[in-house]
Batch of 2 targets.
Target 1
Amino acid sequence: MNEERTIAVADASTEITKKDLNKMFWRLQLMQLTTNFQNMAGTAFCNMISPVLKKLYANADIEAKSRAMKRHLEFFVCQVNCTGLILGVTAAMEKNTQEADKDSISSIKTGLMGPLAGIGDSLVKFTLVPIFGSIGAALALEGNVMGPILMFLLYNIFNVGSKYFLIHWGYEMGTGLLEGDKTQVLIRRISNAASVVGLMAVGSLIATSVKLQIGSTINVGEQSIAIQEMLDMIMPNLLPLLTTVGILAIVKKLNGKHTALLILATFAVAIVLYMLGILV
């Protein structure tokens, strides 16, 4: 019994079950609660992987357990949904690597968290969230109470479902995940397709929700030409598009700062132009 307790390795014969992976999944929901400036989400990652470590190192000595915990308390930062993929891969590596090769786990985590953070942010924050928000906003602007409810349901179906899928998929694929060219091509195609759909949704939202028309006219002799009609002949909804692009350019130039002030300034300019009869 003493010899069993003094081994300094994880038990590779231990079976990691769906129940163990689901424990990581539920802990992943609270990942951002422990974010800090010292190791970002490192504390949360250690908490999430701990059910697997507890099972693998059940018969290991205290030094082996301590090394495993410290290994996953290192600096970690990644997009939340894609963290599920890293959790699954890490769990597979903890089970299948020898004690001398455990340092490679940290290398794999470091190598994955950067690219996956970029994919996760572009796919979730800048593509799917605007799509779901556009659908909900379009319904809400029509006075339909299902707008915000539908947005909430669509986002959380994806949010929760993707975390569950990626943890289990990452564990099944193990260290071979993302190494093949086919997988990289597939991810790239999905990301590009989602970006196109997102741009279409945002463009539609601008055309239908940004209402901006010029009420001024140009008098030529006895005839008067409406400026808005001329703009519509060039391109319908041209003014809302130019205004949105202009405000976006200002936001980018200010690096996202003073956004509240910019909103108030936009309101003020719109009110003044309306009172002068320039806008209707």
Note: Strands lie at 217-220, 223-226.
Target 2
Amino acid sequence: MSRATAGVDCSECSYEYFVSKYNVKNIGLPWQAVWGSYCPLCNHLNINHVEEREFFQNSSLKTEYDKASTELVTIIQKNDLEKISSLIYKIKNKKVPEAYIQQYVNDNPEKFGLENLQGPFPQGPDFKAVWNGEEVEIEVERAYTDYKSHQHHHNWSFRKVSILICLDSKQPTKRSREGLPQNIWYIDQQHFLEWYAEYIEKQIHSETLLSLHHLTENWFTSRFNEELFDSEEDWSMELETNTMINEISSEMAFHFLVPYLPQIHHPDFSLSDIEPLKLLEFYVLHKDEYINRIC
């Protein structure tokens, strides 16, 4: 609002009224402020001013990943063979979270000839499976040295482990072989990198979608509360109604975001693609249907 007061012609009933910066409210989203006011005659919400907020970055909605992971996704997407080879070399010297290696094995049992794979388990060996017709227990580590550093060779729970799957291709010497499982398998590192990039990217998209759903759900909840209650005190008094509003707001957020899914999963997606004014249009179009379910 550039002026202290401004005249507004209600788009619903054509009534002219005046507003100041003190009696307009922001009904936008973090990346776009939308200032609106309610007509004192018909209570229709009129849009007075829209303001882009350039400082709000897309990354604010995404899980924080380290620089190496972000670089990895970019390199794999561009299929830069020279850099992929460099990354494969770095695997030997840079720790990769064991949970990701476990997830790789879980997603790719056929790469190891495993059937009926179960796990990863929170305690004891990571997996159980069938290999060559026999039931086996499997431990997954970044490198074979981790098996001993984790003291698995002294743990009775690991006595039946016959397969150790490692990401690092370094092989044990004859002397260091003692105490390790009978079979030591090594992950195809290039295949792991391709899987890892796709896995991280899916996580980023999933986190972005969940964050967007949460934001839009809260937006719908605010609109319903304004529609149904006169004050914030009323909101807290109607616990059962509020529960229903939250459920309906979540459902509305899902239906609103469905058409945006292809954009959200595209690398060039920007938060500005989700427009608060589109949210308002969606709410106005469907609110009566949902309010009837609440009341």
Note: Confidence is low (pLDDT under 50) at residues 57-66.
